[in-house]
Amino acid sequence: MAVRLRLKRTGKKKQPSYRVVAVDSRKPRDGRVLEVIGTYDPRQEPSAISIVNERAVHWLSHGAQPSETVSKLLTISGAWDDFRSASEPTAAAAGAAVAEPSPDVASAVPVPDLVLDGPAEGDDPSPADAAPANAAAADAEPQNDEEDR
Hints:
- This protein starts with a strand and ends with a helix.
- Strand 3 and strand 4 form a beta hairpin.
- The chain has helices at residues 53-61, 68-77, 79-99, 103-108, 127-140, 145-148, and strands at 3-12, 15-24, 35-41, 48-51, 65-66.
- It has six helices and five strands.
- It has a domain at 3-88: CATH 3.30.1320.10.
- 43% of the residues lie in helices and 22% in strands.
- Strands 4-3-2-1-5 form a five-stranded mixed β-sheet.
- The mean pLDDT is 77.
- The chain is α+β, with helices and mostly antiparallel strands and 149 residues long.
- Helix 1 (53-61) packs across helix 3 (79-99).
């Protein structure tokens, strides 16, 4: 079942007020709801928003998708920030544990040096050693710049 957080219209004709509800997404706008989590009255100045943040965070953490209007109301009421802060510490704690190992662990695990493709350790490539190899290649294939053009 796909749960949505959306508005349910109440009030008289031409005088709307809304309930913020958790509802199955297949139900009609004013149909049966799972839970009423708040109210919204746009006719007051400023608009009256009353949302139970704890229940909104509960539904968001269980996968409920807010409508565009309800997501704005959740941001205003602070429920969206509560939801984000509730979901981030677990990821931040896991990332911090990986990013900053304890000093004991860091000293026990050797850190590899930068490895480049090249001669093995102990081999000292000097220009004198490289010259005969290049000279042998030069003797085997004569280079004539004029013929290449």
